[in-house]
Amino acid sequence: MQPKTRIDVAILGATGAVGQRFIQLLDGHPWFRVAEVVASDRSAGKPYAEAARWVLTGNPPADVANLIVLPLDAPLNSPIVLSALPTDVAKTLEPELAARGHVVCSNTSSHRMAVDVPLLIPEVNADHAGLIDVQRRNRGWTTGALVTTPNCTSTPVVMALAPLVQFGIRQLNVVSLQAVSGAGYPGVASMDIFDNVVPYIGGEEEKVETEPLKMLGAFTGERIDWLTTAISAACNRVPVLDGHIVCLSVALDQKQSLDAIRDAWTSYRGHESVRELPSAADPILIYTDLPDRPQPRRDRDAVHGMATTIGRLRECPLLDVKFVALAHNTIRGAAGGAILNAELLVARGYVQGVVLPTASEQYA
Amino acid sequence: MQPKTRIDVAILGATGAVGQRFIQLLDGHPWFRVAEVVASDRSAGKPYAEAARWVLTGNPPADVANLIVLPLDAPLNSPIVLSALPTDVAKTLEPELAARGHVVCSNTSSHRMAVDVPLLIPEVNADHAGLIDVQRRNRGWTTGALVTTPNCTSTPVVMALAPLVQFGIRQLNVVSLQAVSGAGYPGVASMDIFDNVVPYIGGEEEKVETEPLKMLGAFTGERIDWLTTAISAACNRVPVLDGHIVCLSVALDQKQSLDAIRDAWTSYRGHESVRELPSAADPILIYTDLPDRPQPRRDRDAVHGMATTIGRLRECPLLDVKFVALAHNTIRGAAGGAILNAELLVARGYVQGVVLPTASEQYA
Amino acid sequence: MQPKTRIDVAILGATGAVGQRFIQLLDGHPWFRVAEVVASDRSAGKPYAEAARWVLTGNPPADVANLIVLPLDAPLNSPIVLSALPTDVAKTLEPELAARGHVVCSNTSSHRMAVDVPLLIPEVNADHAGLIDVQRRNRGWTTGALVTTPNCTSTPVVMALAPLVQFGIRQLNVVSLQAVSGAGYPGVASMDIFDNVVPYIGGEEEKVETEPLKMLGAFTGERIDWLTTAISAACNRVPVLDGHIVCLSVALDQKQSLDAIRDAWTSYRGHESVRELPSAADPILIYTDLPDRPQPRRDRDAVHGMATTIGRLRECPLLDVKFVALAHNTIRGAAGGAILNAELLVARGYVQGVVLPTASEQYA
Amino acid sequence: MQPKTRIDVAILGATGAVGQRFIQLLDGHPWFRVAEVVASDRSAGKPYAEAARWVLTGNPPADVANLIVLPLDAPLNSPIVLSALPTDVAKTLEPELAARGHVVCSNTSSHRMAVDVPLLIPEVNADHAGLIDVQRRNRGWTTGALVTTPNCTSTPVVMALAPLVQFGIRQLNVVSLQAVSGAGYPGVASMDIFDNVVPYIGGEEEKVETEPLKMLGAFTGERIDWLTTAISAACNRVPVLDGHIVCLSVALDQKQSLDAIRDAWTSYRGHESVRELPSAADPILIYTDLPDRPQPRRDRDAVHGMATTIGRLRECPLLDVKFVALAHNTIRGAAGGAILNAELLVARGYVQGVVLPTASEQYA
User: Fold this and answer.
1) What DSSP state is assigned to residue B274?
2) Whose CA is closest to A238, among A297, A284, A179, A182?
3) A53 or C363, which is more confident
4) I need a surface site. Which of A258, A285, B272, D159 has the fewest CB within 10 A?
């Protein structure tokens, strides 16, 4: 299953840290082609390689390096728009682009909690994409749509909990140890984080205490029925480049043995239709028996940075069980997640004018 | 209050990371003088400066630099012995030295949980020192004694909770972010912890889940009645040099407002008799209103590394309140704590042959 | 030797990283009192503690915390002005303040190379302060003056070379490994320097290749006769918080044995008159025989951060000898150096209205 | 050009940091298959995954994970032996294995400077492999051979200088900033290198001052005529995981413009026969115009970690030009280099019993 020609995508906030990840991950992507790069006025008009201070490994891909950066108000041609805009800009610009007919896959928090905006980790809640139909009806959009990825710390929380929802998740305690890249670029000053921990990230705990409830909730065809789990989160910044760790404790309605929980993880395959998408994680979850894993540097790149790695499952003297989960915050928790959302919307026919092969063509 | 002459102390495990902290902290100490340094056979017979690879700032104090390192089985003359021995060696050697008449203040875990061994943070539970009388009776020791400091992560937990015991601590969740110096020297390999977190420290969670129960318990005159709080701990190593952070959630028997809890901390003075000891923290606890503190690098040295700094008090959606506490792991949580224990035992008359001034002399 | 009352000083650029070091170092200073704090419009009007994001250890001293930050154009009352302004602002404001009668001790590069502006490390070239008389004559200033500290990397270079000037320094190669605090705050982004080296610091190599020539030159009474040494510098940023290391190779006109060079360092006492100044380093230079020193973390704080530590002296197959030197970049190489300059100018009578005690008063 | 079946290789010192890199790089290698893993007695007899504490990203490849570790004295079947042994063990064991008929490609320093042992960077001096014929004659070996890779810091030095040898390299100054992985595992203690630089690496400067002379020398058919360049080296350990930076200054016999030097690098193709080897770098050298590159984290993985990246070419006030070069120390400078050496020896027919395809087969 693959579109007959590569689909043009526009990157909003293309010069920032997540914007760069979009460009890095789309280099050689089988379905998508970076056709437009959009950034603030300071960058607009310059070739991308000059406008962006590339902060990832290596250098920007050659074809993107020469694209001229467009201003935020430029009309766009790409049917798909991937957004890593600052929240204030995203607030108005993303719905405008959707209204103009673009399918906007946003990595920004501005619209995540809107009742008619899907908050997606496709392997976990691909069916929430159906909320787009409600959204289009509500907002009078025809070909446009707006979907979002969760916060980078909510991501491993939701992925690790998805297979446990069947047992009833009554209570959840989350303490995160988050990498500096989560704050974008320039982001965290080295003088603040060298030889240090900052036990506070503005707005983060509120997101981790609410986003999972929406994401793990049920889509009724009209709305999402949120989970009612009580969640407490404490978020810390640590001197790590990439990869967010969460220490989780969970109380379940139906008690389970450690083996049963481990089995739930290792047998978890997620939505079948998602497995064929180019950026989907397979496996989605990796359980490691090594006593001191997962670790950011050693596990963040598992399954091209899209898997969540879980370890250290043990009884919890307060709730029922505790364990550790890890995901790459700028791949799985940001750019990679938004690209997978775009793939899902293509596969489900939400991107107008994209021709998917018939089954016979596909397997010819 | 001060002994008439400086008291000789011996340092066991003098070449290790905590042994070095002992020597650094005792440089210029008003009561104590490092008279004997003891280490493994590999070091014995060499001048200290040659035997020890000094890992702290600067260089070893000149008077200690020239002391010849004694072997573990050397007879010692110092009435006070400060021990930073490995647990296996400590297991037998520490009681032997106590039996020979030395007052042993240990930083090792080997004897912490023995029913007749005080586990002390003097500001918090100086009265537990009375257990020495039971210990001497039990073991037939006359002038000798054995007391211990808690684990470096238990330390800020116990200090932050001490003023809350009055409200009844029903449940406690602890997630730690611990510095590399907690593992001694050479300890954590840079290849393991650069750009990384290790979400496991062998044996640590068990200690954090039990030591506070003993320390915050009541001394009956014969034994310690442990607290019965349910504690869950998850311990992580982070790329920080010194200073352990704990993210705490607490459920109280008697609910308190945030203000009442903050007041309990800021008004906490601990045992009155302890305040005059040279190494005692005063204040014991510092509450900071800054939104992103305490931080290891910026707060670990508060009150010469002996205070615990607390911040981020807020409601907890699961238990009652949550907050962050921090203490210097090799000062407050190790060498400084053991020195303060020794000071306490001197002040309470447990160190034979040390003449304290009379009140009239003291205030002359 | 000490003024009869503490002298008011104003701090320009008080909220920045070096401004904070000024305030930290002046806390409890025997001669000076921070009376005025000046910063950009964004900060002006707020209490210092609120305007400044304190990036050093602990918190701002209480008396400064409550000072209201003054705007850059505020008239100042303090006879002494310590400046950590950005270069563009310093360019015009520093001479203006000197013209208005203030003695300006600047840490900025804007005026360092002006022919009538002393570039001072008092222990090394206190006599260059005599250039102030030329400056006042040139510029028509009466009580005002402008003196500067060198670049933070030039500092250990000049200090280590000062005792070798007598042998004739023909060639000098410098490769630096510089701490992030040298770039101010927020300065170096953690995403740029974690697990990384940046082998470039804008404008730095030019400074290191010229400043030492002026500083080690001879004051003729009218001007500085520069040294004519050929210097080559390569500057690198490394993931270290404080402390700049320089790897030096030197060719001398008169060849010396390693012992003779070591002796030149260890016997170096600098200008006699400087030794009594409160912030002067004594010793100025520390030579360490330890094979792997100096190291930033272990040696930067030597002699309250004002000494330069030297080690690893050995033959150089290209030039004559090579060695390693280290100084604390924000103390010796910035704020501490500028404070010492101010002390020197007080002692030499360049600060009007400050009454120094007579010799008989001093030793009463 | 590829052997008809994959060739068995044995890894000596398989559990160490470089041993692990061998295994990681050989996973999926088109010519070689890890058939035997050899380590010290402590590891022998255990499955590899259990014996080795894996310190790289992810986990050991599944097929190697289950190999039983062989003791050092085990007879080996693999025609090719890749060695990452400690120097003392390598000193006797490597020649013994060569005497028994194995082609030993060593990463150890023990035999690098022996007159009949090639010290190879194939792109640069593949012709030195001819010294094997001399070696076999000298030592009476028939099918066995011993070749070595250079020190990890010599590597970028030699690669960057290779295209400049034509101009006559008269003088060379090298200051290195080396990653912690160069010291193996556990290697550098985090307490030694966090927030620090160690300006000393035992034995390193001697290697960097001699190895390039041999490697860049000419093979006469009987021996290597060394270069006579005067080299001075200063070596520093910095808090970086992988990737060694060298700051180089060079004096040339025939002065060149900066452009001519840059052209020499960008047009450098090395030995033609080497380009087809699976691990060869192509390009061998990358010159970057970005002002602040090369950087370890951003450039070490260029061309699968086998290229050397050069930047910051500029005039040197002392010698002629200065610049910065970088290579991955455990790939290019260790395991990857030794694998490429093995490939070279296969291609040149030095590995008995390996059948290379004929040209007609190859291009069929």
Assistant:
1) G
2) A179
3) A53
4) B272
Query: D338, D332 in Cβ contact below 8 A?
Result: no
Could you confirm whether D105 is annotated as catalytic? no
Do the beta carbons of residue C216 and residue C296 sit within 8 Å? no
Q: Identify the pLDDT of residue C364.
A: 40
Instruction: Report the pLDDT value the prediction gives residue B190, as an integer from 0 to 100.
Output: 98
**Which amino acid is residue B48, in one-letter code?**
Y
- Whether A360 shows a pLDDT value over 60: the answer reads no
User: Are A215 and A123 within 8 A, CB to CB?
Assistant: no
Neighbours of chain A (3+ CB pairs under 8 A): B, C, D
pTM metric for this prediction = 0.96
| CA–CA dist A348, D208 (Å, integer) | 60
Q: Which residues of B touch D194 (CB under 8 A)?
A: 180, 190, 239, 241
Burial class of residue C196 (count of CB atoms within 10 Å of its CB; 0-12, 13-18, 19+) = buried
Question: Is 50 exceeded by the pLDDT of residue D88?
Answer: yes
Which residues, listed in sequence order, are joined to residue C40 by a DSSP beta bridge?
none
Q: With H, G, I as helix, E, B as strand and everything else as coil, classify residue D248.
A: strand
How do residues B31-49 score in pLDDT, each as one tens digit? 999 999 999 999 999 999 9
- The whole-number average pLDDT for the span B2-25 is 93
Three-state DSSP state, D137: helix
Q: Does the distance separating the beta carbons of A185 and C190 come in below 8 Å?
A: no
Write out the DSSP string of B64-99.
HHTSBPBPTT-----SEEEE---HHHHHHHHHHHHH
User: Which residues have C-beta within 8 Å of that of residue A164, sequence separation ≥ 6?
Assistant: A250, A252, A256, A261, A264
Nearest to D334 by CA among D143, D106, D136, D163: D106
Identify the CATH number of the domain defined by range D154-328. Answer: 3.30.360.10
Instruction: Spell out which residues of chain A touch residue D57, defining contact as CB-CB under 8 Å.
Output: 297-298, 301
Residues D115 and D117: their CA atoms lie apart, in Å, by: 6
Token couple for B195? 């750009």
Contact C53, C83 (CB under 8 A): no
Question: What are the structure tokens assigned to C135, written together?
Answer: 């400056």
B176 closest CA partner among B148, B192, B142, B152 = B152
Burial class of A346 by CB neighbour count within 10 A (0 to 12, 13 to 18, 19+): buried
Would you call B180 and D195 a contact, using CB atoms and an 8 Å cutoff? no
Residue A195 and residue B230: Cβ atoms within 8 Å? no
Fold classification of A7-149+335-362 is Rossmann fold (3.40.50)
Amino acid at C347: A
CB C237 within 8 A of CB C245: no
Contact between D52 and D75 (Cβ < 8 Å): no
What residues contact C266, with CB distance under 8 A and at least 6 apart?
Answer: C285, C287
- What is the rounded distance in angstroms from the CA atom of residue C340 to the CA atom of residue C278? 8
- The predicted model gives D166-188 an average pLDDT of 97
Q: What is the pLDDT of residue D3?
A: 76
Cα Rg of chain B (Å, integer): 20
| Interface-testing mutation among A205, A232, A293, A312, with chain B (most B C-beta atoms within 10 A) | A232
Residue B270 exposed, middle or buried by CB count within 10 Å (0-12, 13-18, 19+): buried
> How is chain C split into domains, by residue range?
7-149+335-362, 154-328
- Rounded Cα gap, residues D281 and D235, in angstroms: 26
pLDDT at position B363: 43
Report chain B residues whose CB lies below 8 A from the CB of A319: 232
Q: Where are the beta strands (DSSP E) in chain A?
A: 7-12, 32-38, 80-83, 103-106, 145-148, 169-178, 218-219, 224-225, 230-237, 244-252, 285-288, 308-315, 321-327
Contact C256, C277 (CB under 8 A): no
Measured torsion, CA atoms of residues C210, C216, C219, C222, in degrees rounded to the nearest 10: 0
